[in-house]
Amino acid sequence: MDNQKNRLTSSEITSFWAQYIQDTMSVCISKYVLAKVKDSEVYSLFEFTLELTEKHLHVLRDIFKAEKLDLPIGFTDKDVNLDAPSLFTDTFWLVYIHEMTMHGLAGYSISFSVSARKDIRDHYYQCNIDAMDLYNKSIEILISKGIYQRSPYFSKTERGHSITEWGYVMDLFGDKRQLNSMEAGNIYFNLKKSIAAKALVNGFKQVTKDKDIHSFME
């Protein structure tokens, strides 16, 4: 019964599998960026990123081995060409790592909340702390360089209002209302992600030699 309780659950295996794929990709990207960036602050940030990622992968591999589970097919050094010319600016990579860290924070929080075993919870507890450290480092650099873009500001209301009409959430037709702060914040968050993703896809699309990959990027 104890062994049954201590087995990895489907949620825990899923979290580990997804993190392994993401972290092996992160290693490839970090190594490439470290080979190309000139900005000392960005270089230091990706050094820290690589250190954290390799630490997390060490834990993942140990648990996969202990549970007698095959490792997922992740990314390797064969998937990155460190001799390739620079494809993006140092500023882009700074924005990229900041955006990816925001995703990491969300993912680690979910993984922590669906884990039962203490060692798994301890792992994702530490992952959350690591991601928050990386987030703080990245946003401080962005702010110091004057390139951090804050979400929209809102005017203060004099008093609170209760929503009493269905039209507030069903306004596809008829009169349009102003966005509330939650909607504006979420739209802006997704807009920033889309801009970074578009730049990444356009960059890769220009240099890939595989017609199928180019078509997929297009």
Would you write up a description of this structure?
The protein has 218 residues and is mostly helical.
Structural class: mainly alpha
Supply Rg: 21 Å
Which geometry do the CA atoms define?
globular
Distance between the termini: 52 Å
- The fraction of residues in strands falls at under 5%
Q: Overall mean pLDDT score?
A: 90
Provide the succession of SSEs: HHHHHHH
Q: What's the count of strands?
A: 0
Topology:
Elements: H1 2-6, H2 10-36, H3 40-66, H4 90-113, H5 118-144, H6 181-207, H7 211-217
Helix pairs in contact: 2-3, 3-5, 4-5, 6-7
Please give a handful of descriptors for the protein shown.
218 residues; 66% helix; mainly alpha; 7 helices
Short characterization:
This protein is mainly alpha-helical.
